[in-house]
Write a sequence for this structure.
């Protein structure tokens, strides 16, 4: 097998809204494991085909831990993988940390949050209705809902919850923030969570941060750095993706009003529709990762050499026609839907059940309250974020 391939600059170009660059389809057909040159860290392999992406995500020969602190590893974001963060670990260290918080995110525990979710969203929609149209769904619903939920789970008081919106954008930056700005925001949040942990030591609580402090102090199951980084990871992962997807899903449904009307008329079809929106929506602005091959691995017709960086794009894999029938069609009634929106393998999203519930509640409440919801501006005038790893509208004006 050959490793001699043309090297393309990556990302390929400026993306439009939630569209998938057609070059990805070409690569899936002709070069599913392709050589790319990134702005940060040099060259690596880009994996786009569904079966190959699943393999990389599940195969422990592709290591996240081997990327820690390495400036020479190809990556989309400017900062290299940090130490002591759960997403930067391989098993068994990753497994140890994951077990500490997994109980808070089981399907049963998440289901107990349902009344609180409906209350939060109901209050948000009351405010929208009282103010009258137009309303910005990003500011009024999409951003605050997941922030409030994950902060309440961790025990962050309401007066401090605003800190995490700005911080999350900086940590997901590709070009929107400088390295100094990213570092400053990270240091500020580290200091805050260190203070919060100290408060839990002085006054123990039964929230998630209280449980992590107990695991640190009583059972010695994680270090202080791991405790703080786990809190950071949960705050970012616990709201940023969901906030963008609430807005993205609403946009896609309102872009074609018949989609919205169909779901409003058949609310029982919402769970399947959410899974299809998760599959279809191109949330990521680029490949995720990176990972480093620990040994030579044959993948997609090439040999990836030990030490090579590998990046995967699960959202592009979700549009692979070898895995999904008519993948570029948003079919809200699609049946079996083994998408990779929440990843696969050891790093499968810990909060997947919570994210699904938040999406169902947010979209479901909007459909129930505003069955005739419409975009307040033409779809092509919606402004989109730029320079960030995740896509989403800056604002989503709607009327009813």
């Amino acid at each position: 097998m050959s490793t001699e391939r043309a090297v393309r600059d990556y990302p390929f170009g400026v993306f439009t809204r939630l569209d998938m660059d057609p070059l990805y389809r070409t690569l899936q057909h002709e070069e599913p494991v392709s050589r790319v040159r990134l702005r940060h860290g040099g060259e690596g392999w880009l994996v786009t085909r569904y079966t190959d992406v699943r393999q990389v995500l599940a195969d422990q020969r592709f290591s996240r831990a081997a990327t820690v602190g390495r400036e020479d590893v190809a990556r989309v974001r400017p900062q290299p993988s940090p130490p002591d963060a759960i997403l930067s670990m391989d098993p068994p260290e990753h497994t140890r940390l994951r077990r500490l918080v997994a109980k808070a995110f089981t399907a049963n525990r998440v289901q107990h949050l349902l009344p609180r979710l409906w209350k939060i969203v109901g209050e948000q929609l009351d405010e929208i209705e009282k103010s009258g149209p137009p309303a910005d769904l990003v500011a009024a619903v999409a951003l605050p809902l997941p922030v409030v939920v994950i902060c309440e789970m961790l025990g962050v008081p309401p007066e401090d919850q605003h800190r995490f919106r700005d911080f999350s954008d900086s940590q997901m930056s590709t070009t929107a923030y400088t390295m100094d700005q990213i570092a400053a925001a990270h240091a500020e949040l580290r200091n805050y969570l260190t203070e919060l942990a100290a408060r839990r030591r002085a006054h123990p609580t039964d929230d998630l941060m209280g449980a992590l402090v107990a695991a640190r102090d009583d059972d010695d199951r994680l270090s202080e750095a791991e405790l703080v980084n786990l809190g950071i990871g949960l705050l970012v992962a616990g709201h940023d993706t969901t906030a963008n997807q609430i807005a993205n899903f609403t946009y896609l449904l309102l872009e074609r009003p018949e989609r919205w009307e169909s779901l409003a008329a058949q609310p029982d079809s919402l769970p399947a529709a959410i899974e299809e929106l998760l599959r279809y929506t191109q949330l990521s602005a680029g490949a995720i990762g990176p990972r480093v091959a620990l040994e030579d691995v044959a993948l997609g017709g090439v040999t990836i050499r030990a030490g090579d960086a590998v990046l995967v794009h699960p959202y592009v894999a979700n549009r692979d026609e070898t895995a999904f029938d008519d993948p570029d069609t948003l079919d809200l009634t699609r049946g079996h839907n083994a998408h990779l929106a929440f990843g696969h393998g050891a790093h499968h999203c810990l909060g997947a059940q919570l994210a699904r519930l938040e999406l169902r509640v947010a979209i479901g409440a909007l459909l129930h309250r505003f069955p005739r919801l419409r975009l307040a501006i033409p779809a092509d005038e919606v402004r989109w974020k730029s320079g960030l790893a995740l896509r989403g509208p800056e604002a989503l004006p709607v009327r009813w």
